[in-house]
Write a structure and sequence with these properties.
Blueprint (H helix, E strand, L loop, with lengths): L9 E4 L2 E4 L10 H5 L2 E3 L2 E4 L2 E2 L2 H14 L8 H14 L5 E9 L13 E8 L7 H6 L1 E10 L16 H12 L4 E6 L4 E4 L3 E6 L2 E4 L9 H12 L4 E3 L12 E6 L3 E8 L2 E2 L4 H14 L2
Parallel strand pairs: 8-9, 8-15, 12-13
Antiparallel strand pairs: 1-2, 1-7, 3-6, 4-5, 4-6, 6-7, 9-10, 11-12, 11-14, 14-15, 15-16
Length: 288
């Protein structure tokens, strides 16, 4: 099976389009050695990228947090993303903008490096098969925790922050689960490896405050939809022992969209009315 380096198509690379297989970086790229890289995950529905401008603004902000300056404006990134879809004849697709420090300097200091930017897009169906999404995915609590905001750039969508996510997801998959539940450094429930966390308890939709993890754009959208559809909502810290009293649990993210959770460790949940309502509202919104 071919990998992501072996596809037909074009990738926008530092302002120009290059053949997919020719979009390469040098071995001594700073981003590879020191995780000086930020990225976005975006979806296009019927040719329209959902919250596209918000994603472009977040990419620039993520880079700024890491001390990197992206040499393109929001408007230039927007034009490049849509041109990438057009050049690859895509209307329903996943879009991956990424920025990284180059190979001009190698070491902890990186002031002399150039910030490179690329945008790729490809067809990508639902993150989980429909039958799994309908009954809910299975999670297991990860052994690694999210760090505090004074120990990592937690409000940046930085590549380095996903190392413990890969470790946690691999660990979960080895146990027959689809994903892992992440706790923070205090032991609070915060998210899955690449999606935000929502719980329904006593008819109230609850999600943790994003003080040490990324405030996802899909998360923000679901909160807006909850208010619009008169779903009682509360943002507060969640302790793991509360999960046993939850009626519904779901995850949100660009890739996951709105995905029900059927089990966490030994606790089971149902796909209830609030998940169904918000998932339907979200699906209607992204194709509108």
């Amino acid at each position: 099976m071919s990998g992501f380096d072996d596809k037909d198509g074009l990738i926008w690379y530092n302002g120009k389009f290059v053949e997919w297989r020719d979009a390469k970086v040098h071995l001594l790229t700073h981003g590879l050695h020191y995780a000086s890289s930020v990225f976005e995950g975006e979806r296009a529905y019927n040719g329209k990228i959902f919250r596209s401008e918000d994603h472009s603004k977040r990419l620039i902000n993520s880079a700024n947090i890491l001390g990197m300056t992206i040499p393109y404006s929001v408007e230039e990134l927007e034009a490049a993303k849509y041109e990438t879809l057009k050049r690859n004849n895509l209307t329903d697709a996943y879009i991956r903008p990424v920025a990284w420090r180059g190979s001009e300097q190698l070491g902890i200091s990186a002031q002399k490096t150039k910030t490179h930017v690329a945008i790729a897009a490809w067809e990508w169906p639902s993150y989980y098969p429909v039958e799994i999404r309908e009954k809910g995915i299975k999670l297991v609590t990860a052994p690694w925790h999210r760090p505090p905001a004074d120990c990592a750039p937690t409000q940046s969508k930085a590549a380095g922050l996903y190392m413990i996510c890969t470790m946690s997801k691999h660990w979960a998959e080895e146990q027959g689960c689809q994903d892992a539940l992440m706790l923070d450094y205090r032991g609070h429930v915060v998210e899955a490896t690449s999606a935000n966390f929502f719980m329904v308890k006593n008819g109230v939709l609850v999600t943790p405050p994003p003080d040490c993890f990324l405030n996802g754009l899909t998360r923000q959208t679901i909160i807006e939809l909850a208010h619009k559809h008169n779903v009682p909502f509360e943002e507060r810290f969640i302790m793991p022992d509360e999960l046993k009293d939850a009626q519904e649990i779901f995850l949100t993210g660009t890739a996951a969209e709105v995905t029900a959770v059927g089990q966490i460790d030994d606790i089971h949940f149902t796909v209830g009315p609030i998940i169904t309502k918000l998932r339907s509202a979200y699906e209607d919104l992204v194709i509108s």
